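Notes continue from the previous slide.

Worked example: a multi-chain complex. Inputs as given:
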Amino acid sequence: MSTRYVQSVAEIAVVGAGIAGLASAVALTQRGHSVTVIEERTDTTSGAGISIWPNALAALDQLGLGDQVRAAGGRITAGAMRWKDGTWLRRPSGERIVTALGEPLVVLQRVALRDILAGALTPGTLVDGVAVRGLSTTATGVRLHLTDSSTRAADAVVGADGTHSVVARHLNGPLPHRYAGYTAWRGASSLAIDADLAGETLAPGAEVGHVPMGPDQTYWFATERAAEGATAPQGELSYLRAMLANWAEPIPEMLAATDPAGVLRNDLYDRATARFWAAGPVVLVGDAAHPMRPHLGQGGCQALEDAAVLGAFVELAVDLPSAFAAFATFRRRRVRGIVAESRFIGRVVNLPAVLSGLASRATVVLPEFVVTRHLASIAAGSAFALPKRNDAQRA
Ligand SMILES: Cc1cc2nc3c(=O)[nH]c(=O)nc-3n(C[C@H](O)[C@H](O)[C@H](O)COP(=O)(O)OP(=O)(O)OC[C@H]3O[C@@H](n4cnc5c(N)ncnc54)[C@H](O)[C@@H]3O)c2cc1C
């Protein structure tokens, strides 16, 4: 086994400056490595919010950034579930959720999270406006081929380039993705909603999520079955205002107080989890390794767990390839069930109308403690696990 990397500073290229790429860059920089993040876009801001569950706050604590994230957003105990007419389907006690999860979750602007992660990097780490179009492994590491026709040598590469990842395809060959059959809108409203309503409102074949984002704003999302690539000719927000006009408060008011310019619409796709997450000096993190539907609000949270765990393995293992292999084995176990469950929820909520209505109402028969215990197994601070020395030796 090579010991080329032991105790030495490696040049590591991270492909992609999303949550996974920035957080991984922080973790690797903290271990003394020289990191460059290559990002194809020059503007990665998005108006949407994001929920950061306690498992990801625990991962952020490992990066020394947990308290900054806690301070940058609203702290909530989500979990309310209502029918579109306002009938309660599930109304968990906030106290019970906090006890189960360890602390409230945080909802903040994506741009605020991005700024906190990027702010923890050494100036000059991020190189943007150029994409990686391919990579080849060499005797001493990896050569990245960039869209400006230049190449860049690195000792190791972290593929954090999302669902359409070039790095994941380098390791796995083609990874087709398929339209999931429904679309998602996201936005921020200047209406502050009642904290007890943090959660979801459902109807046959549609759902709306609404969570306070700080004292003055509400982050919301909506999903609906729709043809792939469809757009609303009258404007996305006008379409939603009309579609959800008869839903229970705060939904119509919340949409009335939303700026149309900040509304995002994204069709949702399924792409299989990559079979190979690591090979030699190349590793995948975040959506590049394990894309998931957004229903558990865990895609970004798992990317943060990836980053903290990757950093820990880099510290524990004898060299980077061993760290990457051990990371892949360790993280695959945790992520597998979360990917499957996110897909299952998406299928149920977005089934054809009658079936979806029945299935959503059927979940109510589950006792509260079963639901809370299950949620805790995914999203509690204690659900985040760091590797031990044995885990690094097992790979
Ligand atoms: C509607 C919706 C709601 C969601 N809500 C939540 C939530 O509340 N909580 C949560 O935790 N998660 C949520 N998620 C999931 C979360 O957004 C993703 O899982 C997360 O953003 C993935 O981060 P990433 O860094 O792995 O990938 P990405 O965010 O896709 O970042 C990849 C980056 O790589 C860059 N890139 C791509 N290819 C190249 C290349 N070849 N060269 C250079 N750069 C490249 C891209 O420009 C991009 O900046 C939601 C997702 C959706 C769709």
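Summary box: The first strand starts at residue 11 and ends at 15. Residues 15-21, 38-41, 44, 50-51, 131-132, 160-162, 164, 166, 184, 186, 221, 266, 286-288, 294, 297-301, 303 surround flavin-adenine dinucleotide (CB under 6 Å).
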